[in-house]
Every structure is written in C-alpha cells, then in structure tokens.
Design a protein that fits this description.
Pfam families: Auto_anti-p27. This protein is an alpha+beta fold. It has 3 domains: 110 residues, no CATH class; 53 residues, no CATH class; 49 residues. It is 39% helix and 15% strand. The protein has 7 helices and 8 strands; from the N terminus they run H-E-E-E-E-E-H-H-H-E-E-E-H-H-H. The strands form 2 sheets. It has a 5-stranded antiparallel sheet, covered by helices on one side. It has a 3-stranded antiparallel sheet with strand order 6-7-8. Helix 4 crosses helix 5 and helix 6 packs antiparallel against helix 7. The radius of gyration is 43 Å and the shape is rod-shaped. The protein starts with a helix and ends with a helix. About 5% of the residues have low confidence.
Length: 241
C-alpha cells in the first residue's frame, strides 16, 4: 500500500466490493478507476458514486504488477471507454513484493467467513486507518491480539507504540454509565429523654407566661428577679435539649 501511495495513488474510504477486506486505491485522483490494495481487482466509478468491477485480478494476471504497468493498464481501460481498441501491454515478469507483503497484512487472521458487505465509507475504523497512513503512520508486522480484521498501526510520534483503530472505535462507541446512588435520610427516633426535655421546656414557658399575665392584670410591680429566674430556667432546659 505504501508503494501505491508513493506512486501517486489515492486511498479511498470505500472498501473493495469483491473481498470486503481492503480499501480501494484510485489510480489517479478524479480518474474514476480504482484497484483493491489486497486482491488487485479493478473497479470503475458508477453514476451513483459507487464502484463496479471492471476487471478481476485473474484477468490482470498477464499485466505487470509494477506502478508503470498499472498505469499502462489504466490507459488501456480509458481508451476502451472512448471506443478505441488498444492492444494489451506486454506483461512484466517482475512482481512488486512490497504490495504482496502489505496485502498479506490485511489478510484475515481467522478462518471464519468474511463479514457481510457494508456500504462504501461505512467503516469508521478503516477510514481512520487510511487517514493515519496519509499522516505518516506505518503498518506494524503483526495483527491485533483481539482478532480484529484491521492490522496494527505504528504511531510516528510515540516510542514504537502500536494502535488498533478498530478497538479504538469500539471503545469510543461504548456508552459510559454511572451507577445511581440513593441517599436515605436517617430515621428520627423519639426517646423518653427527649420527651422529658420537651415537657420541662413547655412547663417553664407556661409558668413564665402566667406570671407576666398576672403582673399586667394587677397593674402592680413586676418581680424582675422572679422573671429572670424563670427565663434562666427556660434557657437551661433548652440547652439540655
């Protein structure tokens, strides 16, 4: 894949409709022709923005796997669209080992059947991996220990740290819940001691009220000392409470 990027090809967010495992690489930006980075099938852009198989990798076995050979194949396909018949280019016997190695990295790690095909651009993890490769990330020579379908990537800013974008997307989509805590008020208990204090306070207030009423009714002098003593007794009772 890195050799394709260096040769000027553009990584697309669409997934190969044939193998549903690898991203498509557009041979020329806006050219409307793309190849799978893994199985090397060729596709043409449809009127609705999708991709339709033009030529399988078996049909391309006589074509060169080098970037120069791919450009000749793309030229021949464009000429065929305009009605001009051209002879296929002579195949080269050399193979691009780097493309084969990186295609092997994208191979599934399990023998299970490939997942159901998804619409183009619907896999955020694969899109994030493609953007990271364009920013200078590199593919690690190992697979995710959790069995994800995408290879690990090496962060250029870290100390050789590897990242699985499929695991990161799954973790980001997981909702976080905080268990609700219920606070219960402590029950209020009435003891015999509390009832005695309340009764004493009520009696002291009653005596003070009667003494004040009697003094006002008789228009006589108010015994300040007695009133003060009752007030102090009332205060002492309140403190004991």
């Amino acid at each position: 894949m890195s050799s394709r990027l260096l040769s000027g090809q553009v990584m697309l967010s669409a997934t190969c409709p044939s193998c549903n495992q690898y991203p498509l690489m557009e041979l020329k930006k806006g050219g409307g022709i793309a190849e799978c980075a893994g199985c090397n099938d060729s596709f043409g852009r449809t009127s609705d923005g999708g991709w339709q198989l033009r030529q399988s990798a078996v049909d391309q076995s006589s074509q060169s796997q080098s970037p120069l050979g791919r450009s000749h194949v793309a030229t021949g396909r464009r000429a065929a669209e305009t009605g001009q018949q051209q002879q296929p280019q002579v195949a080269s016997e050399e193979e691009d080992d780097s493309d084969d190695d990186e295609a092997a990295m994208f191979a599934p790690t399990s023998s299970a059947a490939p997942p159901t095909a998804q619409p183009a651009g619907s896999n955020p993890a694969r899109n994030a991996l493609g953007r990271a490769l364009l920013r200078g990330w590199a593919l690690a020579p190992g697979a995710c220990p959790k069995g994800c379908s995408l290879p690990l990537a090496i962060d250029p800013t870290g100390v050789g740290a590897t990242v699985c974008f499929e695991c990161e997307q799954a973790e980001a989509a997981r909702p976080t819940t905080t268990p609700a805590t219920t606070t219960r008020a402590a029950p209020t208990r009435s003891t015999a001691s509390d009832q005695v204090h309340v009764q004493s306070l009520d009696d002291a207030m009653h005596r003070l009220s009667n003494d004040l009423a009697a003094a006002v009714a008789s228009h006589g002098a108010i015994d300040v000392g007695k009133i003060t003593a009752l007030a102090q007794a009332l205060e002492a009772t309140a403190r004991a409470k």
